[in-house]
Amino acid sequence: MIVRGMEACANGMLALMDANDNTANNLANVNTYGFKKGSIRFKDVMQSAIYSQNDSVIRSSNDSRYLGTLSVGSESLTYTHDFSQGALTKTDNPYDLAIEGDGFFKIQNSDGKISYTRNGSFTRNNDDYLVTKQGEYVLDVRNRRIRMIPEDLDPDLIRDKVEIIIGENGNIELNAGMQKIPMQTIGIWDFSNKDDLFEISDTRFIPKTPDENPELRSEKFSVQQGMLELSNSNVIREMISTINTTRNYESLAKIVSTNGEMLTTAVAVGRLRT
């Protein structure tokens, strides 16, 4: 039982190390726009059935009374994200966009690879396309790159003379004095199973099984221009989680140390008897 107890504690300590790494990542991204905090689900490594017989506890079901189960520790099962809404902050930058409600912006890099994000910190590149700060293209509802200036207009003449208006439904409109020019519509996409989303960076996600969990047009959302969504990671809660994890780890470490001393004593006694 001493060895089994040490094994259970060791498994628990490994799981707590994973939990602490996750908390550290949440804390590191409290100021990252569009960040969604992660959490770890745990499972028992093994459940042993316990029975009683003749006033003693054994591990056999023959003519015994079932008492319950005994866990030999836990381990990390899955890593999930909390996609709850983060607070919005005002920036007054016309290219900064925040999604209030469900959905993600759809991003395409130079290699054509697609990802999804809630980080709407965008800008306009030299070719007048709406891009991320890393230069990746934002796509519209028809999966086209979004051009902020119509190709039939001279960008040098109107680039600094128009007002860009983005409505809550994602419609882009250029206000050039008395003339309003309708443009593309920003695509807002969602997934029926968010647990299937795999994080490829701190704010970028892709579905692990796109055939089983395809992208869907989001319905319950509004796009807020000149605003950004803050991280939904809470500093105070993460610090409390860190403290609790550390205390649990220390408790398990003490048990391992105590069991180690008991095992050493038992071995020494066995040698004396022989």
List keywords for this structure.
seven-stranded antiparallel sheet; 34% strand; three-stranded antiparallel sheet; 2 domains; 274 residues; Helix Hairpins; alpha+beta
Structure described in brief:
By secondary structure, this protein is of the alpha+beta class. The chain has helices at 2-28, 155-158, 235-273; strands at 38-44, 47-53, 56-58, 65-71, 74-81, 88-90, 97-101, 104-108, 114-117, 122-124, 130-132, 137-138, 163-166, 171-176, 179-185, 188-190, 197-199, 204-207, 216-217, 221-225, 227-229.
What does this structure look like?
With 274 residues, the chain is an alpha+beta fold. The protein has helices at residues 2-28, 155-158, 235-273, and strands at residues 38-44, 47-53, 56-58, 65-71, 74-81, 88-90, 97-101, 104-108, 114-117, 122-124, 130-132, 137-138, 163-166, 171-176, 179-185, 188-190, 197-199, 204-207, 216-217, 221-225, 227-229. Strands 8, 9, 12, 16, 17, 18 and 19 form a 7-stranded antiparallel sheet that branches.
Secondary structure elements and pairings:
Blueprint: H1 2-28, E1 38-44, E2 47-53, E3 56-58, E4 65-71, E5 74-81, E6 88-90, E7 97-101, E8 104-108, E9 114-117, E10 122-124, E11 130-132, E12 137-138, H2 155-158, E13 163-166, E14 171-176, E15 179-185, E16 188-190, E17 197-199, E18 204-207, E19 216-217, E20 221-225, E21 227-229, H3 235-273
Antiparallel strand pairs: 1-5, 2-3, 2-4, 6-21, 7-20, 8-9, 8-12, 8-16, 9-18, 10-11, 13-14, 14-15, 16-19, 17-18
Helix proportion of residues, in percent? 25-40%
* Helix-strand string: HEEEEEEEEEEEEHEEEEEEEEEH
Distance between the ends: 22 Å
List unreliable stretches of 5+ residues: none
Total domains: 2
* Helix/strand/pairing category: alpha+beta
Number of strands: 21
What is the approximate shape?
Answer: elongated
Q: Which assembly state applies to the chains in this document?
A: single chain
How can the largest sheet be summarized?
7 strands, antiparallel
Mean pLDDT: 84
Number of helices: 3
Radius of gyration: 28 Å
What amount of the residues lies in strands? 25-35%
